[in-house]
């Protein structure tokens, strides 16, 4: 997030797109509720009529995968009506002139045909955000899990740049992280393109620095993504470690994923429970849970927080860092002689510019948000207040493109997937709670009443849902939360493996799967 969580209570206008925050981030969403109670206006762009959408002053139930068209048209309205922050663009950005000329061709009427919402509502959304003082953008996986996920994010950046809503209290661009410590994992270099502290893997200076620190020569190139890794199983990759992820349930194209894991000569899984993915493993190492572990996590607002072991570990379980270090030592890899989480975190601080002012003792009370570039620095709750790290914020000229697969006569219904309030991710943890099982014991397929009548579907009965990759059976739930022509279900239940169906395409830059768009056909069972 560019802004701290407390800023969520301060926008004049909230623009939430591709986020079901009241179910996926219910605690943080209470701050938006406070903002609305204080008079803030909210625009929600989401195909479904979620709880968040019902709170909005304007709900745009856009067709799945049409976000770029909507955002281009909103930018068109802002430019046309003279709502751009000309001084901010001149003083702090690059590429503004080309971008503002580019958006003149993308009218609300043009976007309406693609997004399947009235042009007048798109116009209203552009005016609300363009006139905001300040305006805040919030998004989650509904923006990124598309073949155009990067274009979606850059389009949101364009809106913030053209209105000067960066570096201001109550504004910013705020991606809400989907799981705890996703931010911290990226900070530590658990991404294929960066070392610790987002130092590029293909930057010679960064490579030299990290190579020296670890006493071994590291290649000056980006690593591969998980998509590539699974594709290479049984080819160039013969062994794999999966730590804390239930890949079989959460990844797209489940049949391909299972085939990839079976193709390995050796699979190691590290987890706190015996997951569906662990069933494919040759070796399973039991890890300690969060309450049994000393460590550090960075949350969605970049706040660096200590974890303290509260209870003894169970059985033979060990901290993840200890398990990985022991594997490395048995492989003869130097540099893994760690004795504590404290030692590892202090090493991160030595190597990472954004953590350079921190250490284990300084984060005792969790009061600092990175970057903290030197000792004594108070931290940075709000990014980009005076300048951008790279000098100027860059506008990006993007155009609309269809999803990898679109509906047709064979697959005439749009399927989109997501999460539910009661189930956390793949239910590895929440699925073992009797109380949560009482609240949500099974998965259903949300079907619009008009579609149900046309397709002969009955509430509570089973339906077969088929895509180009496979088929599943699922119970029907008839309601008006999804628009006509679109159905929704979550990916949380292993016995309803919806990700057998998904996986039609990937963003060419990040290789993020298009989990939010999948053409299907549905018939009664």
How would you describe what is shown here?
The protein has 525 residues and is of the alpha/beta class. It has 3 domains: 5-173, Dimethylsulfoxide Reductase, domain 2; 180-223 and 289-310 and 337-376, Rossmann fold; 413-524, Barwin-like endoglucanases (Beta Barrel). The chain has 19 helices and 20 strands. The protein has helices at residues 21-24, 26-37, 51-55, 67-80, 86-92, 96-102, 108-115, 119-131, 141-144, 149-163, 182-187, 204-214, 226-231, 247-250, 254-262, 320-330, 341-351, 434-439, 449-455; strands spanning 13-17, 41-45, 58-60, 93-94, 135-139, 173-175, 194-195, 199-200, 239-243, 266-271, 283-286, 295-298, 304-307, 393-394, 413-418, 444-447, 462-466, 471-478, 486-490, 518-524. The strands form 6 sheets. The chain has a 6-stranded mixed β-sheet. Strands 3-2-1-5-6 form a 5-stranded parallel β-sheet, with helices on both faces. The protein has a 3-stranded parallel β-sheet with strand order 9-10-11, with no helix packed on it. A hairpin with a 4-residue loop joins β17 (462-466) and β18 (471-478). The longest helix is centred in the N-terminal third of the chain and has 15 residues, at 149-163. The radius of gyration is 24 Å and the shape is globular. The mean pLDDT is 94.
Total helix count? Answer: 19
Provide the domain count: 3
Low-confidence stretches: none
Strand order of the largest sheet: 16-18-17-20-15-19
CATH topology of the largest domain: Dimethylsulfoxide Reductase, domain 2
The secondary structure category is alpha/beta
The counted number of beta strands is 20
Helix fraction bin: 25-40%
Largest sheet: 6 strands, mixed
Distance between the termini: 45 Å
Give the mean pLDDT: 94
Rg (C-alpha, Å) = 24 Å
């Amino acid at each position: 997030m560019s802004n701290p969580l407390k800023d969520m209570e301060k926008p004049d206008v909230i623009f939430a797109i591709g986020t079901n925050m009241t179910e996926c981030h219910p605690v943080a969403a209470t701050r938006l509720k406070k903002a609305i109670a204080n008079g803030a206006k909210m625009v929600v762009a989401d195909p479904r009529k979620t709880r968040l959408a019902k709170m909005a002053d304007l709900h745009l139930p856009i067709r799945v995968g049409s976000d770029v068209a909507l955002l281009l048209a909103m930018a068109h309205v802002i430019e046309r009506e003279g709502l751009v922050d000309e001084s901010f663009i001149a003083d702090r950005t690059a590429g503004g002139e080309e971008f503002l000329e580019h958006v003149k061709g993308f009218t609300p009427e043009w976007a309406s045909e693609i997004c399947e919402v009235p042009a007048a509502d798109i116009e209203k959304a552009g005016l609300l955000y363009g006139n905001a003082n300040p305006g805040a953008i919030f998004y989650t996986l509904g923006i990124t899990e598309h073949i155009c996920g990067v274009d979606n994010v850059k389009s949101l950046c364009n809106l913030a740049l053209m209105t000067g809503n960066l570096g201001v209290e109550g504004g910013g661009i705020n991606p809400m992280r989907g799981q705890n410590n996703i931010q911290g994992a990226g900070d530590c270099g658990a991404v294929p393109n960066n070392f610790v502290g987002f130092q590029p893997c293909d930057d010679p200076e960064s490579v030299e620095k990290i190579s020296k620190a670890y006493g071994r020569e590291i290649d000056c190139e980006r690593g591969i993504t998980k998509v590539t890794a699974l594709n290479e199983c049984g080819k160039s990759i013969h062994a794999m470690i999966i730590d804390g992820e239930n890949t079989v349930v959460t990844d797209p194209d489940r049949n391909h994923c299972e085939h990839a894991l079976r193709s390995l000569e050796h699979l190691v899984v590290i987890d706190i429970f015996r997951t569906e993915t662990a069933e494919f493993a040759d070796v399973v190492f039991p890890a300690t849970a969060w309450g049994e572990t000393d460590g550090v996590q960075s949350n969605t607002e970049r706040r660096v927080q200590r974890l303290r072991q509260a209870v003894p570990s169970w059985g033979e379980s060990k901290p993840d860092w200890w398990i990985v270090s022991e594997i490395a030592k048995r492989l003869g890899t130097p540099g893994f002689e760690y004795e504590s989480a404290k030692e590892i975190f202090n090493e991160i601080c030595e190597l990472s510019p954004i953590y350079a002012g921190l250490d284990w003792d300084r984060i005792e009370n969790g009061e600092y948000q990175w970057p903290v570039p030197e000792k004594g620095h108070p931290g940075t709750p709000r990014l980009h207040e005076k300048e951008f790290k790279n000098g100027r914020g860059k506008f990006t000229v993007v155009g609309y493109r269809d999803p990898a697969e679109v509906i047709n006569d064979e697959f005439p219904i749009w399927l989109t997937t997501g999460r539910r309030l009661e189930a956390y991710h793949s239910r590895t943890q929440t699925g073992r709670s009797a109380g949560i099982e009482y609240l949500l014991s099974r998965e259903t397929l949300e079907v619009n009443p008009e579609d149900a009548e046309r397709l002969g579907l009955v509430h509570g009965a089973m339906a077969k849902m088929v895509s180009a990759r496979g088929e599943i059976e699922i119970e029907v739930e008839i309601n008006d939360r999804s628009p006509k022509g679109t159905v929704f279900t979550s990916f949380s239940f292993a016995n309803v493996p919806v990700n057998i169906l998904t996986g039609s395409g990937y963003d060419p830059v990040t290789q993020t799967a298009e989990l939010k768009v999948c053409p299907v056909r549905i018939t009664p069972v």
